[in-house]
Amino acid sequence: MKIAGKKLLWKEYQKEIATDHYFYARSCIRQNFFPASETTFLRVMREELGKDVYEDPRHTTCTGIVYHTDLVRIETTMTVIARQFSLMTQAGYHNYIASCITSFGLYNEILDLWEHHPEIEQKARELLWKATKREFEKPQNIAHASDIIYKFRDDIAARGKYRLINQKTGKPLKGVEHIGCHYSRMFPHKGVGGAEYPYVLAGMIETFGGEVVDYPERRHCCGFGFRQYIVKANRGFSVASSKKKFESMAPYKPDFILTNCPGCPYFLDRWQYAISEMEGVTYGENGHGIPVLTYEELAGLILGYNPWDVGLQVHQVAVEPLLDKIGIPYDPIKKYLGAKGESLGRPEKPSVLKVY
Amino acid sequence: MSMGNIIEKLKEDIRFVEGLNACINCGTCTAICPAAEFYNYDPRQLVVDVQSNDEEKIIQLLKSDTIWYCGECMSCKTRCPRSNTPGLIIMALRALSQELGYFTESEKGRQQLVLKRTVGEWSLKHGYCMYPESITTNNFPEQGPVWDWEHAHLHEVMDRLGANYQRDGVGVLRRIPQDALDEINKIFEVTGGLDRFENIEKCSRKKAKELGMQFDETHDNEYFDHIFMANNGQHQKD
After folding, report:
1. Is the pTM of this model over 0.90?
2. Is domain A22-145 in CATH 3.40.50.10140, yes or no?
């Protein structure tokens, strides 16, 4: 079929995403700070969508944070990445899913580098063999995990128990989305919607019944900046970047923020707490913050998973105001219990930011 | 390093080659750059200086705070009308600054030791660049009381959230098998990663001595504390 007209115009903003049989590489930051997001992703993939997702305990950090804190040269990082591909090859898979945006960006960077400089790919093969006696095939398809949820958003919505509709007013809930910088800024054609119109999260919000709210600083970085957050002396950069976004989005009264990068939900959640302590300012309703969700958490909530199974208790900004609006029931007494129902106490309350 | 070699050294870094075509000095990178908004930093000027081939200027840059302000968000790559990437040029400059030992000449550059001893060493020891046991609200106060609670009950909370923390097998924060960690360490060895780490240690020890500060291999020494916290207040725009 000849592609013409608007379809041709938008073709470069489309992305091919594999439909099944995936090798899944976890994210270091997500495992530390939003562990249940990855658990939820696999639950959705396997139990709801019936997909084959393989993981290998031997995969490690891709060295993305080490690379972007400039501790190692590209030779080290591309060889570690070659090893990840070797694990995929060994398991007989061809479709690679990265849980991390930094990893996803790096995989694209390295594959692009190898495509334009075959001698560098050859060097990676030699280095990997020298270090580990391993060989590898390159993935046929690379997706970020948010691409996968995006691809199956209609199936998730169809199976869903809830919609992003305010139960009291009947109106769509307002979501702002924040795309991780390395999702499509470096290689626009690798992301859904490219760098100009990234649609990966907006598509989920709309399909799940919500309304996407545009705001001036929608595309500003959350302020991780790698060394700009990890080193305490530099964190002014990080908090200032997030604050710029909060002040820009707050007048539009969003009901939630949706993110796809492992670091962004952490910064957008925790800097709201820090700003409330530093300046007494909160950005949500009635002294609360604006709830921040990962895309896996959102998918889990839509499907009717228990909010505490999805991991909302490890957010600093309370998500309950959003649950109330959607009409999702939750048991406050069970929020901070352990896996066996044992009491683990509860976190202290912040001095300004209201929590439940 | 003798004059005449700096440009050649930079050109050995593929990121420098890929990141710098002819800059037309339009300033689009500076307009879009989050670091330029916060810091006294201008990627347009940096690219002009590098493009000048003036080795004196480039050596000054390698010893300066300027090259350490970028957050590597790579917004500049999207927007440059000539397909330059100041962020990649920065990465090449930072690599050379560390190779030549110039990074300890600036407050921001000296911070590389903190990064090496945290995300760098955690990656080799655990196979993860972050590791929850090592993160406390003492060093990361913005983690908030919810992290204090989680940290106090790490195994229980991880179990509740479906993790496989410090156990064998697949899953969140599983124990990565020793043979896998050995392979990662070997990769660092054959690709020069360990040499870079050793050089960061060596140059930092020398700088600590020069500054008369106590220095040891822990995270609890005068030099480490100093570089983690020091901010001379001169980095931001007026």
Report:
1. yes
2. no
